[in-house]
Each structure stands twice: as C-alpha cells, then as structure tokens.
Sequence to fold (693 residues):
Amino acid sequence: MKTVGMPRGLFYYYYYPWYKTFFNDLGARVILSSPTTRITVDQGINMAVDETCFPIKVYFGHVQELCQYDLDYLFVPRIVSVEARSYICPKFMGVPDMIRASFSDLPPLIDITIDISRSPRDFQEELYKTGRLFTKSRRRIKAAYEHGREELKYCQAIAAQGYTMAEAIDIWEGQEEKGSWNSDLCIGVLGHGYSLYDQTISLDIIGRLRKMGCRVLLPEALPGERVEEEASTMPKRIFWTLGRKMVGSAFIMEKKPEIDGIIYVACFACGPDSFIGEIIERKIENKPYMLLVIDEHTGEGGLNTRLEAFCDMLRRKRRQKIEDNLPAYG
Amino acid sequence: MKITYPHMGNACIAIEAMLQKLKLEVIPPPPISKKTLEIGTKHCPEFACMPLKITMGNFIEALDLGADTILMAGGWGPCRFGYYAQVERDILADLGYKFDMVILEAPDSRVSELFRQLQALGQNVSIVEAFKALKFAWYKLQVVEELEKKLAYVHPRALDKRKAENIYDLALEKIKATQDKEEIDKLFHTCLASLDQIALRAEEPLRIGLVGEIYTVLEPMANYNLIRSLGRLNVEVDNSIYISDWLNDHLLGGLVKKSHRRQLLKCAAPYLNYFVGGHGLETVGSTVIYARQSYDGVIHLGPLTCMPEIVAQSVLKRVSSEEGIPCMTLYFDEHAGVAGIQTRLEAFTDMLKRKKARRAAIH
Fold:
C-alpha cells in the first residue's frame, strides 16, 4: 500500500476530509503529521526564512516531521486560487518551491497546482492527475473525487454547528462530539483557519474563550452566500479569498444582535491580514472589536490578560446596559 | 482640481510632465523625508509594508499643501499593492481630509482602457493631446533612465564620486523643471558629456545585480540610498528593474519596446515554478541570469513582510548554491538604521572582493 504524507497545516483545516477520502479510496494510506507542538514550531523556525509568517513556519515543521517517515509521496499542493479572480496569498503559491529549496531529503512531492482562476475545473483536473499515480481507472478516480467532496460537505456541516474546523475534522474521523459549554457571552472570532484552529499557533484562543464563559461564533457557521453578499459592499472587490470571507463575516456579525463583541486573530507578517484587520477595524462601529496579533513569541499570560479584559468589558457593558458609555474598542 | 501623486524614485519626473500636459494643476508631494515616513507609519497598519507607509506620508503632506485629488494605481493581487488605494482612502477619510481619489486600475494589458482613464482625468483634453502627453512623459522617462544607467557606469569607477553625483543630480533637477523637448535633449547630452569627462579608476569594479520589489529598488528613500552607497564602495550596480520596462510589460502589453521578460521567467524554473505576485518570479529569474553572466553577487531588496519577496528569498538560497552566486537579502522598514545597512554592505562587498581575488589567483 502506498503512503502519502500530509502536513497538518495551512489548508489541512479546509480540505483534509476531501484529500483523505480521495487517497483512501484510491488505496493509499494517508500519514498525517502529529498535532502542532512546541517541537514542530522550533523545527519550523529552524528551516524557514525568518521573515515568513508563523503558519508557514509551522507547516515547515510538519514537513520536517514527515521527512522522518518512509513515505512514497508527500502531498504539498500549490494552492493559488480556490475561486475565480481571487487568491489565497503569494506564500501559498510558492510553498512547494520553498520546501524544495529548504529540505534536502524529501520524498517525491505531489505538488499539484490548484488555480481555479485558470479554469473552473482546475481542482478536479489536478486531483485526477494525482489519482493517476495510484490507479489507471478513471472511473475510480472520479468516484474518489466525488466521495471526497461529499465527505468535506459533511465535515463542513459539522463545523456549522459551532465547532472549529479542527474539532469538526476530529468528529468526522469518529471522535465523540464535545459537550456543550456554559456561556453568557457570545463572541465572533475571525481569523485564517490555519492559525485560528491550530491550538499551538493561536494558543487555543477559542478554548480559552469558552472556558471564560463565551460562546464562540466562527465564520464557518455563517452561510456562504450571505458572507459574499456582505463583502461585496466594499468599494473594491477584495481579491484574497480568506480576507473577503473575514470582511463579510465581520459585517454579518456586526448586525447580529446576540453577538457581544468581535475578535480578529491575525498572525504577524501576514500580508492580507495587515490590511483586512485594518479595514474591519474601521468599518465596525457598533460592536467592540479587538485585533489580536500573534506570532511565535506570543506569551500565554499576555494573551489571557487581554482576553479576560475584553470579556470583563463586554460583561460590564451588558450589565450597565448603557450602550454608548464605553468606547467601541477593546 | 489640484492633483497629487505618490513618489517612486524618478517616476515623479514623468508623472508630473504627463499631468501638466493634461492641463492639470499639479501639487507634487514634498520629497520623501524622515518626516514623511513618520507620518505614514503613524497612520498605517503596523505590519503593512513600507511603500504603503511612505505613499501615505506623501498624500498627507500633499493634502496639507492644498491638493484635493490623489492619483494612485491599483491592481488585482495577490500582492497587497492592489488594495493600497482602498486602505489609504479609508484612512485619509477617517483623518478628516476631503479629497477625490482617482485610481488607475491595471487594465489587463488593454492600453485603450488606460488611455481612456487618462483622458477622463484631463481637463478638456482631446485624444490627440492626451496621447501627446503620454508620449512626452514616456520620452522624459527614457531620458532619465539613460542618465541613471550612465551614472551606474561612471559612479563606481569615478575617482571623484561627489562630482559625478552632483552632475547627475543637477541635470535631473533641470530636466524635471523643463517641459521643452529640445531643452531636454540639450541637458541630456551636456550631462552625458560631463560625466564622460570624469577621471576613472584603472581597476575594474565589482559587479552586483540588484533584484527585488520594484518600489524598494527604485526609491532611494525606501532603501536608504543603497545604490549610491554601493557606488561609493566602488561597486557597479546593475538594476534589474526599470519603470519603463515594468510599464511596457504590465500596462502596455510589450508594445513599446522589446521585452526580455519571457526569458526571465524561463530562467526562474526549476527554482520557482509559478508566479507569486509582485516581483517574486522576476527576482528569482534575474538572479539566475546574473549568475550565468558571472556577476560577482546579487543583492535582494524588499520591504519587511513583503509576501512575494519572502517566497523569492526562500528560493534564493537554493539558487545561490546551485548557480554559484552569493546573494544577500535586505529588508527595509521604518526602523532600519543607516549604519547597520552600511556595515552589511561593506562586509558583503569585502567578501566578494576576496572571492574575486582568490579566483583570479587560481586562474
């Protein structure tokens, strides 16, 4: 049985169920790197260029871990665009080249290029190309592709119930659903999935908020069309997929009366986020908004203090029920 | 309407000429200074790239001088530059400025589109006049770039560097001020002649290729006057990017002059196999070409957190070892210090000199 290594980083959080089902159906075994730890981070920092953003460094750490195993292939797709006329980020477009330049003992890479801007069927065609490494039967590849898509939809439906994508993937893989959390506050949390849902990168911001008695609303729980609709109110279309999603989600959250405040989690040196965080901050006028910038030097203590202060402020605001008495920022 | 625009190296000479020919009242932003950067940094997002902060400073300084319209370029990503104008407009509006912003969106290689945008900008300008304005600006740009190239040759070889710099600076100043073609030609030839008269050193200088993000490469204030500093260290710098090349490739669809972009992109493979926005691919391609032309080294510039250049930098270490060319990456932001940069440049050139001498000794 052929083995395919997959780093637990970047678009793992958005596409893993699809990829895994696809490879499994074609008779390959998927070997996933273990959840991010401090060791992953340190390895990544050693391998990657200093100036890259935290999630890319972590991704490098995962690749380093996978290099120890005896793999037939390492799956590191080049994700250029997942929808027409939009990009993810330049670094995503160079990931396979950056990895090739940084590691010397790599297994053969599957570095397909997913660029929907090029052709709307690009994702399908590139995955078909990948499938041919494992089987000659086009019918089987097609079935695996369709099955993968179904599984991803199912996983997204789980996430829409209020789970993070990481939790949704765990549940999808058969873990038990986590119980409900007691909450008196509702906070909208925004951020790129690969930093927000990685418990080491985000220092488990979502878990911390839940422990502080907050219900967390994530972009995945919002209907996609509404998000696009809200985002299209910007004077110029935002050409980063995730950025546009965040802006649209923030606008929806601002209008939802049950949401007490909004937190945006950005990684230092993230290009799109340096703008998106700013745009949201300037447009959100009716809800308390906090921009949290994290990187590999962020300490737990400081983060806790800021989250606690934010929650305390929201609670006080609610108690006083005097809406205009507090400044609209965290 | 009092129009202003952002600075980028010597582009201001061409932009100003064009706007004046379009019969607009132009208020050029004051030359970029420490204060410009300070103002920009104060109002821009913390980890945005430096060109945003500098252009922001330009706009604020120009608006304070009475400008009421801003001319800015746009784009469709993935580099952040495409969204500059939007963010800047929001920030300026929040600061209470009243102004119009005219954004020239990159027209996907349709010249006519750009042309229409320009004509719409002008005050009662006919198509012929608009075309003439564009042509004149292009001519001025060419002259300025020829002078830049001449200085790049003379400066590292000159015995009296200050003199070369002064001749060039003075000529540029005069060319900027005049809108008469004959006068420009005259100034151009006098400048070339005076530069030719400068006494040169006998020794051949080191040759370094300069690659990276276009704004940082072209704007001396964004790279802390790196090209001059290298010239004073007797290093000849070959600039991989000129504004006219960029305009030719991206806006005019290669119409005006022959483009070597295709070859550049071919050379980037197998190191970087896909375009990554900005100038990432050009950076890698140019480095490979410099290596194959036996340059002594390559200096790679970018603003801190520049996404395409980070990809390029990651790939450059492989290019460096496989093509055998020393590369140094320098990132700039508002915290960079001149002394630190100078030290790194000296160390790099010393290393290259030693390498060159050793190679000469072997042969």
